[in-house]
Amino acid sequence: MTTETPPVHPFVAPLSYLLGTWRGQGEGEYPTIPSFRYGEEIRFSHSGKPVIAYTQKTWKLETGDPMHAESGYFRPKPDGSIEVVIAQSSGLVEVQKGVYNVDKQTITLKSELVGNASKVKETSRGFELVDGKLSYVVHMSTTTQHLQPHLKATLKKL
Q1: Which position among 30, 94, 117, 134 has the lowest Cβ density within 10 Å, counted as fewest Cβ atoms?
Q2: pTM of the full predicted structure?
Q3: SS (H, E, C) the chain
Q4: How far apart are CA 53 and CA 55, in angstroms?
Q5: Residue 153 near residue 125 (C-beta atoms within 8 A)
Q6: Residues 9, 46: contact at Cβ < 8 Å?
Q7: How far apart are the first and last CA of the chain?
Q8: Beta strands 133-142 and 81-88: pairing type?
């Protein structure tokens, strides 16, 4: 087993700016829960294959106690489309499709499937790199609420 980092696959190259570990803070809100703030770390990595591995964890800012975690894969295609699969620590799974824009350094995703969720019906995620900081917004709809902002964060590369 080699410890050298393999070359970035050509499909991954347009999104190679994501590769690495990002850390920062976020905010959550939704009509059915109290607003909250959290710390967050996201890691994007690659193995030389046409896929980016994704892991994420959050914690309470006040205590450092764990809050949420998820992992999955980003599968960019040469035509600017992208597929994302994510499994959350809560048991919820998401299959999302969307597009990425190399010049604007954005990724826009919308759920094709939300599985193992009794209340969540739809999600969307938008990522953007601005001035070296990665920000995202997650929208969510449930059985009782329309699609609306749920989470947002700004992260710096470590």
Answers
A1: 30
A2: 0.94
A3: CCCCCCCCCCCCHHHHHHCEEEEEEEEEEECCEEEEEEEEEEEEEECCCCCEEEEEEEEECCCCCEEEEEEEEEEECCCCEEEEEEEECCCCEEEEEEEEECCCCEEEEEEEEEECCCCEEEEEEEEEEECCEEEEEEEEEECCCCCEEEEEEEEEEC
A4: 7
A5: no
A6: yes
A7: 27
A8: unpaired
